[in-house]
What we know:
This is 33 kDa chaperonin. One of its GO terms (biological process) is protein refolding. The protein is α+β, with helices and mostly antiparallel strands. It is built from 10 helices and 14 strands. The chain has helices at 25-31, 38-55, 103-107, 135-146, 177-188, 192-197, 200-208, 229-236, 241-251, 269-278; strands at residues 5-11, 16-23, 62-69, 74-82, 86-93, 111-118, 124-129, 151-157, 162-169, 213-215, 219-220, 222-223, 254-257, 264-267. A hairpin with a 4-residue loop joins strand 8 and strand 9. It is elongated, with a radius of gyration of 22 Å. It starts with a strand and ends in an 8-residue tail after the last helix.
Amino acid sequence: MSKDNLYRYLFENASVRGELVQLESSYQEVISAHDYPLAIQKVLGELMASTSLLTATLKFSGDISIQLQGDGPVSLAVINGNNLQQLRGVSRWDGEIADDASLQQMFGKGYMVITLTPNDGERYQGVVGLEKDTLAECLEDYFQQSEQLPTKIKLFADTKQAAGMFLQVLPTDGNHNEEFDHLSILTETVKQDELFSLEAEEVLHRLYHEEEVRLYEPVAVTFKCTCSKERSAKAIRTVSKEEVDAIIAEVGKVEMGCEYCNSKYIFDSIDIEAIYANAPSNDVTQ
């Protein structure tokens, strides 16, 4: 059975919802694209788990991204996802990164940007500072500021797997904080080894064996990059043909690379002529 699944669950006797995600092959696809330091691998794993968990809360078809930026040696770490649980991600860094580097040591004065982009409707963006020790705590801050809903998040990642849990009060009229506090304390006890080695049903039974939990069918989480030769050709058309011809004259080809999956797209002189000849007149920079 695939390790890459998201599980949703509800507590029958409490107005609280939960999610659990376990990632393996999709996580490996992301971190294998570049020679990432260990600390960055873990950040990307936690971001993947976070994005999957947050994507499951979306009430629309569209995209979500969680992006960490800062003035430290790691300038960017971002995971993009959509309502189909298709994820991709990348990070940029400069210099040596210690294996046990903290968020602040990696990103310096940093912040987290969460962007929601519905297929139909307005784009929304929320920003919160990286002022807590962990990404999970920073995300809890985000939910407290943006939705005022008590939220508990647990995130784990090593070099092979990533996983996470999400607990949140349902947006109802009543005050259910006591129920949430009790369940949050139980959720806090989950261990990395449990999420990495056990089936989701077993994890939930261990944590909430005295609760009535309704577990829904899992949703597969996959790595999917949106790059293509066609998209690369469209990017080339934003550059003047004179500049592109100069590159062809010098090196004989134009090479476009995708940061997310490390794919390479090569265009020779015939390809370039076809790109500009077949482009809509308003889509070409002369």
